[in-house]
Amino acid sequence: MFALLIVACATSPSAPEGASSTPSAAGAPSASSSAASSAAPAASSWPIPVQQVSPESVAWLKAQGWWPLKLGYFADVPAFSVHWAVMREDKLLEKRGLEVEYQSFNSGPPILEAFLGGQTQVTHYGDFPFWTTVDKGVPAVAYAVTGVNNAVGLVVPTDSPFHSLDELRAADHELVIGTTLGSYAEFYLRSIPGLHYRIAGMSMRDAQTIPAGVDAVAIWDPHLTFALGKGLGRQLDDVYPWYFPTGYEFARREIHEHAPDVMQALADASEEALLAVRADPDRAAALYAADPRARAWSQADVRTQIDRYVVAYKPTYKYLDAAFWSAEDARVVAAQFAAGRLSRARDAADLQKDFAPQYLADTFQRLGWAVPARPVFLPEGWAGTVGQPPYPATLHPGTLAAPQPFPEPGDLLPR
User: DSSP state, 309?
Assistant: First the structure.
């Protein structure tokens, strides 16, 4: 049963806890294409029986006008989205009895507006806009993290007089920092103590060029890799001591309440697609890069992102640890409320009401996997406290010497 799950996972040990926490985007681990796919199963392999959505749930979706079910995903963040392209191509929801339509987007506002406006019923994006969605009264429930620890960096122009974060903090003027408003890059900036700045709102595509008139930009991968690879700027700081950037896969809450087997199908299909990406990353990169909205990135660019963020972590990284992420996101919500962007304050206990980790837990149980005791990017003995940065070193592309081995002791359920 487990052979199909293991073949695409490396067996080299990860870096120790004391590894450097200041990564270069170009220094991330790489998994060779041939090594990852030579013994891999066909992309359609799934080692557990496919569960069909009930006729009653299909009828309920049709009664809501949600047939076909409409899904929206990013075509500009491969680390978070490549498995959606595979899920679409391999019809992983259709084989579970759903009729679906996919729409890809290449920026945050349109994908957010589509969900808020009812054009999609299932989608994903960062934690900042997720909590904005909930605050606006659109009922939503998250069932998985869509990705973890995507690199975010503070980058200055190549001719900048600043060469360290301390020098930026000591600047004799208010800094102008470009980033996308309402994103986790903005919250990263808000998390850095002693930095005095105002934000110049711009898209990631604009920010990655390090435009004239800014002292720095806060950008995430793959835009960070692009800027550094083209020599457009110098990275002075990264997100990891300050914030755990993530996003969520989520659906309309009504589906969770009235058709939970549809939610289970979403969770199963998401994890099946993830395994297919790991089994054949070159195929996954080609599928993702073929989307017209993703053509800013070559197939090689997408493959690099797969290696850094999909192959690098254990395949259980998508599990939504409700206690952990609600504690981290309580900071996000508090900052948004203080800035007048959210209508009400919420604590971690309240945020957990919008998480539904049970679906992936069920997926894992049928796969024979244990639910992770902690997020996979936290090393054994990690001494930090979530919600209280700065954080000790974690496992991410700058500190992982090789992909995490899977399975290790404790990763599988007792047989």
Answer: I
Within 8 A by CB and 6+ apart from 186, the residues are 128, 179, 180, 199, 218
| 28 confidence band (pLDDT: 50, 70, 90) | very low
What is the rounded CA–CA span in Å between residue 126 and residue 231? 27
Q: Which of 217, 238, 235, 236 is nearest to 170 (CA)?
A: 236
The pTM score is 0.87
Instruction: Give the residue from 245, 175, 256, 251 showing the smallest Cα distance to 217.
Output: 175
CATH number at residue 202: 3.40.190.10
C-alpha span between 406 and 92 (Å, rounded) = 24
85 membership: H or E segment, kind and range? helix 78-89
- Please count the residues of the chain: 415
Residue 291's nearest CA partner among 45, 20, 110, 77 is: 77
204-213: per-residue pLDDT in tens? Answer: 999 999 999 9
pLDDT of residue 183: 85
Structure token pair of residue 394? 């974690």
Domains identified in the chain, total number: 2
**401 in a domain, yes or no?**
no
